[in-house]
Amino acid sequence: MDNVEFYIITLVIGAVTLFFRGAFIVPDKAHHLSQRLEFILEYIPISAMAALTAAHITYTQSGGVYEIATDKIAAGFIAFIIAWFSKSILATFVGGMSAIWLIQYFDLF
Amino acid sequence: MKQELLKGVRDVAPLLIGVIPFGVSSGLYAVEQGFTAFEAMFMSFVIFAGASQVATVGLMINEAPFWIIVATAILINLRFLIYSVSVSPFVHKASKPMRALKSYLMTDHTFVLTAREKYTGQNKSFYFLGSGLLVWSVWQLSTFVGAFFANIIPSEWSLEFSLPLVFLFFTLPLLKSRENIIAAIVAGAAAIILIPVMPVHSGLIVSILLGAFSGLAANKIFKQGVKNG
To answer: I need a labelling partner for B85 at 20 to 30 A (CA). Which of A45, B111, B119, B178 fits?
Structure first.
């Protein structure tokens, strides 16, 4: 990807995102989102977060090649347990990073 | 007015514990994937939406087609439409440029504080502005720190793993209903299966859509069950 493409894509995404943010705020006349559309959009945030989490925990990627990362999967599982019970981002972060370092140091997976 | 602004700053401060590692991780991730620190910051200023920035970096680095990159980011950021509707009654009295600024500052955190938490202060518009400005500043600073340190921190430290940890933490509170859990399981499983094999790097967008439709289908089925039961 060349530089020009990077800037064009970033600006287009930025513009569309800003449009979404301001769609009902910036116009003078108040508008409403149909309940049907609101219903359709309801499950997108959870799906996006789950898909990104699963992809980033399961694979390491280099040059477009995906490899299953058993060390990250194991550390991710430990982090999930910590996050579930602690409800603390700090504990999740420290626990998950400690887990990946220990797994890699002892070459456990 | 000043009081409301400061109250917004004060109330959003505890939520920054999630913003800081996310910002640092996203800056770090962008530079580790081959972007310059300036490009990482440019993206952070222009898009200012973490999950879509990370997805965009991943797709760009894999040379995914333009429309796939843009469509994936749009899908992830569609939630801002709902936020915009919810927040509009509180910020509508402001001038147009101020409304545009507030739109840009809209994040998950400002939305939760202003709309969901039913803040009852007199001038919610400034409350929104105060919380939005603090989240924006901390996000940009955190991204800068991540992008700056990416070239200094050895790759053996596996700091890129902090990114899925942050995603994981943000996903858990969303698992609040059976429908959401089904959507998450389907999207997660689909991402694992489809991302490496789908053509033109469309795996992520297809996974998100599959998850969202599963949530919708589950909602209909459960509602039908309640009616019949």
So the answer is: B178
